[in-house]
What does this fold into?
Amino acid sequence: MASKRRGLPEINAGSMADIAFLLLIFFLVTTTMDVDSGISRKLPPMPEENIETPEIHKRNIYVVLINKNNKVLAGIGSPTNTIEIDGNGLISETLKEEVKSFVSNNGKKDNSSESPEKAVVSLQNQEGTSYNMYIQVQNELTKAYNELRNEKANNDFGRDFDKLDADEQKSVKKFYPMKVSEAETKAN
Amino acid sequence: MSKFKKGGGKSMPAISTASLPDIVFMLLFFFMVTTVMRETTLKVEVSPPEATEVKKMEKKSLVSYIYIGSPTQTQQATLGTKARIQLNDVTFSRKEVGEIQHFINAERLSKDEDEIPYMTTSIKADSDVTMGIVTDVKTELRKVNALKINYSTKKSKDAN
It folds into this structure.
């Protein structure tokens, strides 16, 4: 075996790294770490027939109405106050503050909720309401609840809400249950 | 300083780069495995609204997606310009919203029975659609008892 004597010339593997890098960069670029995020909600189950919906006292319900012109009206019992929206379509802080004071009223004021547990935010929209505005309002409502929960967490445990363990979070959530009722779209 | 210069005469041995391809290949395989090519091609245009209070979605395998938006430019010839609902690869008009029930049932069949309660429906709607169609979708979801939903949103940059 003459060749064995000379030894097979080794294939130069120096460019292997380059090839691998090329592939690596291709996959790096094409990978979309598509983090899905959004606002989670739970829909109410379909109402069964012949079952009366429980009456909610007016003081325990905060109505937010977004009409077809994307105007936001809000108020306890019935949507009475207009919530201002600035030129960029951002909702003023008033909505969040009002929801917060409504939920955390605890029966102090006669015309506001009896307890966070009984407080319900009713979100109503119309056929022509834009989805964007709807999400903005949902966002404000979530923010109001998140801030309340954060305050509670800081009071009870001295930490922010997301730093609590599962059980502690549960107890805070139980104190401030998020009750957002989404009524069916009103025609016109 | 002379302490360090003892071997000055000899040149530094080159660092062996023989293992470099291995390292790169390892990274390569990682990315190859984690890359998910999108299965459905979108026929409707969806640019979700922005929000600050967003949460990441867990358990992606248990999420079914419903896209709502107006058809993309290339699809407008066949589908028109009105907002449509896309489930998997098929789009439906607002009148055919009942298809969602079949879609959800099909999704349920493909999952384990004990996982069904954890299934979430992600509504990926364009910020320009009106609530009418979204509400129709929600009503259908309520009819099939798929109550966990998620409004897909982008995280806005000006989060305070």
Residues 131-157 of chain A form the longest helix (27 residues). The CA atoms of residues 47 and 53 of chain A lie 8 Å apart. The interface with chain B takes residues 13, 16-17, 20-21, 23-24, 27-28, 30-31, 34-46, 66, 125-132, 134-136, 138-139, 142-143, 146, 182, 184-185 of chain A (CB under 8 Å).
